[in-house]
Amino acid sequence: MVVGAGMSGLMAATTLADRADVVVLEAADRSGGRVETVRKGEYWINVGTQFTEGTGPLIDALHRHDIEMGSLADTSVALVLNGALVDTSDVLALMFRTRMGFMDRVGMAMVGARILAAAPFLESDSRLAKKVRAGLDARPASDLLRGVRSELTRTMVRSWSGQWMGCEPEETAATQLVVSIGLALTDPAKVPNFALPAGGNQTLTDILAADLGERLRLGATVRTVEKSGDGVVVDYVAAGRSKRIRAKRAIVSVPSDIALQILPGLPTTHRNAFGDIRYGRYVIVGFFTEEEGPQPWDGLLAVSTPQLSFQAMFNHAAALRKNGPRKPGGALACFAGGASADALFDLSDEEIVARFSRDLLSVYPQLEGRLGDGIVRRHRRVVPFWAPRGRESLPTLRNPLGPIHLAGDYQLDMPSLADAATSGENAAKAVLSDLGR
């Protein structure tokens, strides 16, 4: 049994499928979890997880299924600050064209220095590096702003936290934010590792779901997963009817709060570890655009907008601009995270689209009359993060509970779509080993 058909659950199930009889139960009416893509013609918008990146099982699966990867190499990121838009790869332009005051520059320098001081220890396994990371884990990300008097700098850091993790700096330990920004500052070559599968991220989850066929049961809400003898029994509801399945093993691949609901009798250590996980929040609005000819955003992967109603804009069409003449149209996704998302959740779709459209046009007036209808998604639970010292309980969740194995992007060090895929594959291999297959 695999409970949950997000990326980790689908990877677990398809890894098992050739060597074991597997059934996947998913409460929603679609597979993919936080992976969702909306398509129009040859353009697409990821209205869930934005990019794929890195190496490992996720990239291997994309290659194995011959999914074309749109490269984002040679694209760049821009920043809109105080009404000016500059390419962040030009440090001088960043410092002087954004109209920052003296205290703003001092504040940015203080934050940058703190991040760069930690950067050499972010990927090392030395004793000193582990001590530095433990120190970051014990402090809130807001500690980066200690002694900073610039409100603009504070706005920038809050925007980074919202963009990367969907939360505020006070909510999370410094580790994830420092790692994310530190690697971007010290290793710009990592940017080409970001990619857009042709057709969007859902291309892969659609293929994995199709491979499972009738073994994937949508609209199946699991009530409990419990040990029974040397196996498990799973109770669930589908089409209004209560059902039960017995299995040798189960992989539970659901968010932490759902795991707490469906796994009765959890040991206190596991209950506390699941309870330590928090989730970032996002509101995303996608726009298919109707412009013709080259546009100033064509070469940009993203635009950071810390002072607007959304904190960043992603250009999903950037990967299509490499070869041949530029085709008409495009695909943009604007998103807000953390407190900015919280303030939008209860607004109507029309109000959210109006705010995002107004601010997007203030950056690119060329889009006037060329923005399609906004596609709104509210995500109240996306990227896992931990409060200071909360991550200390994480190793507990990497071990199975007898015949019940766990999977999810919360298991690895830097939660991402790639980590979700790796976790699912790891859980499946552990089950096969457990069964002697």
UniProtKB/TrEMBL annotation:
GO terms for molecular function: oxidoreductase activity. It comes from the Bacteria. This is Flavin monoamine oxidase family protein. Coiled coil: none annotated. SUPFAM superfamilies: FAD/NAD(P)-binding domain (SSF51905). It comes from Streptomyces sp. R44. Residues 7-432 form the Amine oxidase domain.
